[in-house]
Amino acid sequence: MLETPGGILAVSFQPILRFAPSPNGPLHLGHAYSALFTWQAATLLGGVALLRIEDIDIDRSKPEFDAAIQADLAWLGLDWPEPVMRQSQRFPAYEQAANALRRLDIVYPCFCSRADIAARSSAGDPDGAPLYPGTCRHLPADEAETRLARGDAVQYRLDMGKATAMTGSLTYSVIGPTVLDRPQIRYARPERWGDFVLQRKGTPTSYHLSVVVDDAAQHITHVTRGRDMEASTDIHVLLQFLLNLDTPYYSFHRLILDAEGRKLSKSKGSPSLASLRDAGWTPQDVRTYLGF
């Protein structure tokens, strides 16, 4: 039992958390905050924090970034159990999960390009991307087979209407602002994402599918992530139900912003931890700056 500010929270398992960066660039202060938040949460809960490398994007993931991630975390004073899970080594597990969804008759091939979707979409998803208009949902089977046989670029989507008809209302538990607070129940709204992508040609998984499968495989009890990822929890809770997987607790932490109020990101060239280290920052400087 844990005494919390909101009362008594019963814990009958070892809490397991994870930090799961992608090795497609160097870590920055936003990553450092997320990692420190996760390790602090694991300590408060009397649990353990795992490192997972999310490298399903084979083209962009590089061994040197993988090594740099581990060096940066060790520099911050964080450690984790070995071996480290790498998603690039788990494609068969994702394919197995996708096939389980196919057996439910809720997956279909889609041949639309991003330009096609943008031209036909009249709404946006929670991330602001064009919402898929369902163009290929009712594509005749013989036409789909012909296009697959000739090697057309394809992605596989979840039929949201069929899926949500199977689930009814879905809920999950959010803990915050600290991981010792009493959980609050939230209702998932996966329908606002439309028919999202499960797999693409050449990559037998998507972020959503792989993260759900891996959280279950690693027995993750608490998922800590930035507030910008809160909406995607709708999809994860849906997939957990459909695949008969446990739903962990979720905790959403604040984002680290730049001087213009934008979230730090690799694509915007936010200063890396390595560059800060070279400029004379110490691990304690990082922790103090981020409030740890």
Automatic annotation (TrEMBL):
Keyword field contains Acetylation: no
Database matches in InterPro entries: aa-tRNA-synth_I_CS, Glu/Gln-tRNA-synth, Glu/Gln-tRNA-synth_Ib_cat-dom, GluQ/Sye, Rossmann-like_a/b/a_fold
Superkingdom of this protein's organism: Bacteria
Record-annotated membrane-spanning stretches: none
One function term, GO molecular function aspect: ATP binding
Keywords: Aminoacyl-tRNA synthetase, ATP-binding, Ligase, Metal-binding, Nucleotide-binding, Protein biosynthesis, Zinc
GO cellular component terms attached to this protein's record: cytosol
BP GO terms, sorted: glutamyl-tRNA aminoacylation
Domain Glutamyl/glutaminyl-tRNA synthetase class Ib catalytic: 18-289
Entry similarity comment: Belongs to the class-I aminoacyl-tRNA synthetase family.
Record Pfam families: tRNA-synt_1c
Protein name: Glutamyl-Q tRNA(Asp) ligase
